[in-house]
Design goal:
alpha/beta; 16 helices; globular
Length: about 400
């Protein structure tokens, strides 16, 4: 961590996720913190008490307490998640002791940011990562998400600025009466590392059983909205029709992988699908670049799946379900888009597996698109604009010190 000076404006960034962990929001939070530090802010990052160590120059990582000795917190709403969200109010002590320019809250921590900013006489920034409806599953969870939608609307109305990770999320925020300025700051690929040819060759040799294999890869969680049930059904349909196909599924918990492995074994497909586990973001570019085809079966949500940005950067040919989330960034020139059902998805995989020229064309178009817009410099520039446009302190606020 770099040295700080008393003259640096300070930011309290609050993220209600494990940090660091291999998934979308924690990766995005890491880029937020890095960008703010490079823009000249002294950043205090308050996160949940689980996750891997992850140092960021210019950033002090602080963790909420862990009285229950929990080792992981799942994606989406849960009682343990709500418990830790309350512990993030630890930020009140930080606000009392420090003069922050802004409190920047991610997802449900946006409400915490608003509650802390007012007595601290600083600005509140709310960052919206997801559409609550994309997590719906069961009556209880739906009730929790409906309540969260109301909390989110309140947060938007009382924040000084809103950051959204996709145009659909930005439009949701702008529809809230009394919404402040909303800044669309797209996600970027999960790593700034470029694929190394030697490591790509090593990954290919490890994952592909023969030189003529067609390596088909998926990266991501096994959450329902990701479309993994559709994908595994498509694998079962496509595999018998092309003996060159080999599938690599990156991600999933040990229990999820075990269940899928048993199901594939029952279908006689266990030797055609490999589960290498989770791969750290800075190692992922080398693995992705070894694939011939990359899969995005995403079914719901209105924000671009982070995996698509990694796929496009890696130069793989993409097969994606033609759904709102995928078509925010993909079209028929950059991906093989299919109907969101297993039969059509399997057909898309088979078409690309049999057409190397089409794969090369899609790869070139996708790589050119990602390089123009979805990069760290653009990300940092948009975040700079958001902070530059925050309301200036009033004379009364400038004369006061935090309580």
């Amino acid at each position: 961590m770099t040295n700080r000076t008393e003259e640096q404006p300070r930011i309290l960034l609050i993220a209600p996720q494990p940090f660091f962990q291999w998934r979308g929001s924690p990766i995005r939070v890491g880029f937020d913190a890095l960008a703010l530090a490079q823009l000249g802010f002294a950043v205090d990052l308050l996160v949940l008490p689980v996750g891997d160590a992850h140092e960021i120059p210019g950033v002090r990582v602080l963790r909420a307490a862990n009285p229950l000795r929990v080792r992981d917190v799942p994606i989406g709403p849960s009682p343990i998640k709500a418990f830790f969200d309350l512990l993030l109010l630890k930020g009140a002590g930080l606000v009392r002791r420090n003069r922050y320019l802004a409190v920047h809250g991610i997802e449900e921590a946006g409400a915490v940011a608003v509650l802390l900013a007012r007595p601290g006489r600083c600005r509140a920034v709310f960052e919206k990562h997801s559409d609550p409806s994309s997590h719906r599953k069961g009556a209880l969870r739906n009730a929790v998400l409906s309540l969260y939608a109301r909390v989110e609307a309140w947060t938007i109305r009382h924040a000084d600025a809103v950051v959204a990770t996709g145009p659909g999320l930005a439009e949701q925020a702008r529809r809230v009466p009394g919404a402040p300025p909303c800044h669309w700051i797209p996600d970027i690929p999960s790593s700034l590392v470029q694929a190394d040819p030697a490591r790509v060759r090593e990954a290919r040799a490890r994952l592909a059983p023969s030189p003529d294999a067609v390596l088909v890869m998926y990266v991501g969680s096994f959450a329902v909205y990701q479309g993994v049930d559709l994908m595994f059904e498509a694998i079962a349909r496509a595999t018998p029709r092309d003996p060159r196909l080999r599938f690599v599924i990156v991600g999933g918990s040990p229990a999820e992988v075990e269940a899928r492995t048993r199901a594939l074994a029952a279908q006689g497909l266990a030797d055609r699908v490999l589960f290498p586990g989770k791969i750290p973001p800075d190692d992922l570019p080398h693995t992705l670049a070894a694939a011939d085809i990359l899969l995005s079966p995403r079914l719901s949500g209105v924000n671009t799946p982070l995996k698509l940005l990694d796929y496009m950067k890696a130069g793989g040919a993409i097969v994606a379900a033609r759904t709102a989330a995928n078509t925010l960034i993909l079209d028929d020139d950059t991906a093989e888009l299919t109907a969101p059902d297993a039969a059509a998805f399997a057909d898309g995989i088979l078409r690309l597996a049999g057409d190397a020229d089409r794969r090369r064309g899609l790869s070139a178009a996708a790589g050119a698109h990602i390089a123009r817009f979805y990069n760290f410099d653009e990300f940092k520039s948009r975040l700079r604009r958001c902070y530059a446009e925050l309301p200036r302190p009033t004379r009364k606020e400038e004369a006061q010190t935090p309580c």
